[in-house]
Design goal:
Number of strands: 5
Strand content: 15-25%
Distance between the termini: 21 Å
Shape: globular
Order of helices and strands: EHEHEHHEHEH
Structural class: alpha/beta
CATH superfamily: Response regulator
Number of domains: 1
Number of helices: 6
CATH class: Alpha Beta
Helix content: 40-55%
């Protein structure tokens, strides 16, 4: 008997309520589970939550979590960042594995998610 794949769990780091709402809607449509935090948690909490990927709501939130990003690269947790097109290169320099480029669309969300998560969203 085949067991279903566990759902993709996304840890969203955002204090922007509108963007967090949009990310939650896109995640729900994709069959993902979302855990939201207003700021980056400690590595121990991230290891306990076991997210499939972490989404930072902006380049600034990504920048403030640089120590965490370095620790996450060792833990092999993919990092995504919501950025403007002009910020994409900087986001990758700060450790983003993929970017959700504004204006954020569902197709962009799914494409970025599929690029970093082994399990496919619906």
């Amino acid at each position: 008997m085949d067991t279903p794949d566990p759902p993709i769990t996304l840890l969203v780091i955002s204090n922007d309520e509108r963007l967090a709402y949009l990310l939650n809607r896109y995640a729900e449509q994709s069959g993902c589970r979302v855990i939201q935090r207003p700021s980056a948690p400690w590595v121990a909490e991230i290891r306990q939550l076991k997210p499939s990927a972490i989404i930072f709501s902006s380049l600034e939130t990504l920048q403030t979590a640089q120590t965490l990003i370095e620790d996450l690269s060792v833990a092999e947790v993919p990092v995504l960042a919501c950025v403007a097109l002009a910020e994409e290169v900087r986001a990758r320099e700060f450790g983003a594995d993929a970017c959700l480029v504004h204006p954020l669309t569902y197709e962009n969300f799914q494409g970025a998610l599929l690029s970093v998560c082994p399990a496919k969203p619906n």
